[in-house]
């Protein structure tokens, strides 16, 4: 669930004006943003305390899973803190791995923070990004008249700001009911430990990585990674954990001996959140480049085929975030390295967010799906040419990044494949 309208659209508005606030009873004022010849609507909210509303107020209970935080958790006996840093004092490797993961950046991420500040982002955005009540400043108990922008909230006396910075930390997944939940329920740990393989299963991942609903006309949930996996060939063979938390043998704590363990990098797209950082990556796509002939005659048509297959992902590629895409670039360069012909192909979804969220197209690759792309060039002149193929994986478009003010340092894409071939054209 995301405030897509403010991130997945076309260029930023060219002109804006703010409509005057006409009545005190108005809780929302509508601001019209004129963008490229059409009208874009954004809901603008007054401060929550302003205007004593005269309408009848009903408090409606929360209903959807994403409206709830994980209730307040006590520190398990034997520990002094819920923080990942404190777990890391003993679980050194797990902590170092987790620190590089996207989960550790789920709160601090510039993009997330930029979006959270927008009026169109409801409070419940935080429930998958800082899932523990202990990480949240307010306790939300209901909605005024069912309006997601009007939560009934009170200050959380147990709010822990340092814990909030950690995003999806160890305790989000491992601490429940005053105990550390683990795969074995070992009695060697200094902390209370309970075996719970039902909780520590793919169901845990799916609780956040699958949400499909229309919240408001312009705010839609579109995370379907769980459903894609269930419908695909890996279901029953491999799951989120076996692919994203690869199994190994090692010590969970130094001196405690080898055991079955899993890497905690939660490797995914590999597009870092911070410039210069390495992001743990999995590659879902396999590439099958075609061959070029030894030489071509002048005036001949070059027909080159490049195949892409989603070989390794247990779901579609890209998955989850609808803003992700891949670009395949074919370039024919002459001997002076000038581009003679360029062709680009895109793999991903396209959405329209106004006046209502609507998917326009989707050519994501299903698990196991293979697709052939063809590059055609008329070889008009004799000489040595270069055919270059590059594949890049993108987090979002440049214009979305600019609109969100993410700065020049925010990494937007990574190259994942390059192939360079010589094309000889004779008389
Ligand atoms: C149901 C759980 C859930 C809720 C609720 C949720 N998110 Fe997320 N969010 C996710 C998941 C899962 C990802 C990672 C998706 C992926 O990489 O496939 C994510 C990723 C993101 C990202 C990173 C996008 C990127 O380019 O990497 C941003 C920004 C974000 N969410 C903003 C929001 C906002 C704003 C809201 C509220 C409107 C929200 N989220 C509510 C689960 C959630
Ligand atoms: C003072 C050291 C220490 C701290 C701090 C600590 N642990 Fe442990 N933990 C251990 C030891 C020792 C084991 C047992 C290792 C083994 O069996 O090989 C263990 C085991 C575990 C297990 C595996 C349980 C199982 O079922 O096998 C999990 C999960 C775990 N800890 C999570 C955490 C989390 C989460 C935190 C922080 C909230 C944490 N630990 C803090 C020492 C610690
Ligand atoms: C509490 C909610 C939550 C749970 C539980 C959760 N995730 Fe995530 N996950 C997220 C969010 C939110 C993000 C994106 C954070 C961001 O981009 O800022 C994310 C990101 C990821 C990514 C990286 C995506 C990328 O772009 O590289 C992978 C991979 C991932 N999760 C796998 C898993 C697996 C496997 C599990 C289960 C063991 C799991 N997640 C459990 C919320 C969750
Ligand atoms: C068969 C192995 C496999 C299974 C099963 C699997 N994944 Fe993945 N996942 C991958 C690979 C490989 C990628 C990298 C795709 C790419 O970008 O090339 C990936 C990427 C992701 C991403 C990053 C988003 C993106 O588009 O790059 C998220 C989030 C994710 N997986 C979550 C999950 C969740 C949640 C489950 C369980 C419902 C799951 N995965 C099951 C292999 C798997
Ligand atoms: C997104 C959820 C998630 C987060 C975050 C997470 N873990 Fe885990 N962890 C799991 C799952 C799932 C397993 C169990 C895998 C299995 O069934 O073998 C596990 C297993 C473990 C184990 C048992 C040994 C092993 O490696 O499998 C330890 C110890 C552990 N985690 C410690 C930590 C620590 C310390 C942190 C934070 C630095 C952390 N975990 C963060 C999901 C998570």
Keywords for this entry:
427 residues, binds heme C, mainly beta
Task: Walk me through this protein's architecture.
This protein has two domains: 57-201 and 239-262, no CATH class; 285-426, Sandwich (Immunoglobulin-like), CATH 2.60.40. Helices cover 13% and strands 34% of the residues. The chain is mainly β. It starts with 14 loop residues before the first strand and ends with a strand. A hairpin with a 5-residue loop joins strand 18 and strand 19 (358-362). The longest helix has 9 residues, at 92-100. The strands form seven sheets. The chain has a six-stranded mixed beta sheet, with no helix packed on it. The model is unreliable at 1-50 (pLDDT under 50). One heme C binds next to helix 5, helix 6 and helix 8. Residues 1-3, 66, 111-112, 115-116, 121, 124-125, 127-129, 208-209, 211, 223, 319-321, 323, 395-396 line the site of one heme C.
Topology:
Layout: E1 15-17, E2 28-35, E3 38-45, E4 59-60, H1 84-88, H2 92-100, H3 110-116, E5 138-144, E6 151-155, H4 161-165, H5 170-174, E7 175-176, E8 179-182, E9 193-195, H6 202-209, E10 210-216, E11 219-224, H7 225-231, H8 240-244, E12 247-251, E13 258-262, E14 285-289, E15 296-297, E16 300-310, E17 325-333, E18 339-352, E19 358-362, E20 370-379, E21 383-394, H9 398-403, E22 413-426
Parallel strand pairs: 8-9, 15-22
Antiparallel strand pairs: 1-2, 2-3, 4-5, 5-6, 7-8, 10-11, 12-13, 14-16, 16-20, 17-18, 17-21, 18-19, 21-22
Bound molecules: heme C (5 copies).
